[in-house]
Amino acid sequence: MRKIIATVIKEWILLRRDPGGLMLLLIMPAILIIVMAMVQDAPFKDYQQLKFELLLADNDNGALSKEIKDGLRNSKNFILIDSIDNQPLTEYHLKSLLHNGTYKVGIVIPKGATAEIVNSANAVANNLSEKLGLGGKLPTRDPRKGIDIALYFDPVSKPTFRTSIKFALDKFITYASSKTLVERITKLSKLSGEEAAEEPNEDMSKLFRGIGIREAELNPRDANMSHINSVQHNVPAWAIFGMFFIIIPIAGHIIREREEGSALRIMLIPGAQKLVSVGKISFYTLVCTAQFIVMFAIGYWAMPLIGLQSIYLGKDPLVLLPVALAIGFAATSYGYFVGTVFKTTNQALSFGAISIVILSAMGGIWVPVELLSPAMQKVSLLSPLHWALDAVHQVILRDKSYREVFPDLAALWLFGFVLWCLSIFRNTARQQSI
Amino acid sequence: MPVAIEINDLRKTYKGALVPALDGLSLSVKKNQIVGLLGPNGAGKTTSINVLCGLVLPDTGTAAIHGKDCIRSTFFIKKILGVVPQQIALFSNLTAWENFYYIGRLYGIKDNKIKERSGYLLERLGLEKHADKRVGRYSGGMKRRANIIASLLHQPEVVILDEPTAGVDVQSRAMILDFLQEYRQQDKTILYTSHLLEEAEQLCDEVVIIDEGKFIVSGSPKTLIEETPECRRLEDVFLHYTGHSVRD
Fold this sequence. Notes:
The complex is a heterodimer.
Chain A: H1 2-16, H2 19-39, H3 41-44, E1 52-58, H4 63-74, E2 78-81, E3 83-84, E4 87-88, H5 91-99, E5 105-109, H6 113-132, E6 150-153, H7 159-191, H8 204-209, H9 230-244, H10 247-260, H11 262-267, H12 272-302, H13 320-341, H14 345-362, H15 374-380, H16 384-396, H17 402-429
Parallel strand pairs in A: 1-2, 1-5
Antiparallel strand pairs in A: 3-4, 5-6
Chain B: E1 3-12, E2 22-30, E3 34-38, H1 45-53, E4 60-65, E5 68-69, H2 74-80, E6 81-84, H3 96-106, H4 111-124, H5 140-152, E7 158-162, H6 170-184, E8 189-193, H7 197-203, E9 206-211, E10 214-219, H8 221-227, H9 234-242
Parallel strand pairs in B: 3-8, 3-9, 6-7, 7-8
Antiparallel strand pairs in B: 1-2, 1-4, 4-5, 9-10
């Protein structure tokens, strides 16, 4: 034990004297999580949480366009712009603004759109009247072709964004159509001399509501925190990325010790090699754990200072401690392995950095795994960074207990242990010379 | 006189090598002596030392220190053996004190003993004023002396030095050689390799000349000079037995 503690102390002294290494371990990941959380804040927000400026050129000026404009104005998601410099927006102007990238989405309501809706409603009302034997008839004509509401998007708009706009607009058109239909049926009833036929004076939106959709929370806690957001994703993701980047100082350190001869000194001391290895792994695992704590402290206290949400740490934040230790052990062992297997610092550092970037991309660090293709989701299961992120998400998004995150932790410990054993084997097999 | 180091018919050919590094080498070193292991480049000196340290396994043959097999009893051998590699085997970002404390603790030496021994050795080798300086900032001679101290903290019975004075100034060399003489007085055995034959002639009780992995000749420098025709110095003896051709 004394030899292990001596190694831990020695590693601490060496780390303290390596400002570059310390910066790489603590300051860089801290900057990374703050920047990434800020950058990804908007993409992570659901469209319900964001307000988009939406251009509207109204060539109809009828009931339909009024209904759509009212719906958009009342929506929390859109800021409707239908005039610029007190001039109604034209289709030409709308297109040029979208083309310049000033706005992301534009709607053009064609001339005669209301008339077309009324015509359809009349046709339906006539059909109903005939079936119900009311006798009255409203004027109709053949539907005109090409009377469609045109939606224009900035070319860089994401498909999900386009879908959500289409969905919202469709809802307004459906509502306007239904309202017109009710009005036409009422009118038809009047024409038929029905006594009960009066103008509908109730709020149509209430009439049409019937059954609604309510998003319910799985966890009995702050409803705002139940979704993955930029902070909930980026703080653990980039903290894990930073922890795995410990392979750079570890691998560099191991190769330097081999090159400067101090590793040979350890080999010449009876029984020291394995204990030194335990000491090194223990020290860097603790460093990784400290890194994790610092990153989460930033997520908890610093994020609100820059206008982001504070990270939610789950029902039992202490479960994060064994999670951090397991991630730290896996990351440290990986660094130890890279430092042992590669001969030169250049080889080790290049491989180490690139492999972490690949494993992090695979493991859902950059983009949540749920957004990856089904094939990539299967590939992600191979990445230790995915096991790490999954373990943290289990705790902070699903309030899971230690027992429930154990499979992920076991995978991380096993990964670390296998690499550590391989490193010791490689070290022993390597031909050493005084 | 009892034997400290015994090497018998050692053979070793490295993977991919065309010629053996050791080709049936046999030699013995008596206790409490300073013995110089001499030979041209590629003679097999380093491989022999590596086998004695347990770093390299021979293909055949045996090597023993104080009667213990160097291959089977590496733990015991490492306890009684102090190796001063030619490379500075120290942590350059640690001070001399920090290096000695760490190495001492790995040897299982108590802190007060580490302090006592390293204090004595630092003073004896002229580094006491620099003990708090990082080893990486030492001069070449200081590094060599610190390297020796680190190898002697556990007070080994047998010390192997691989060119301990290579690249050091005259003062440092004199200090190191004086110290080795003094250390031998404490009933210790020293096996030493060097290309500085004048130094070996002054320091060693006995020299062993090897070449191409084989034993060539051994004896006290004085006897070898006397018994070898037309030789006035150890260097003449060396060239007599190993020839004038340049080795790679």
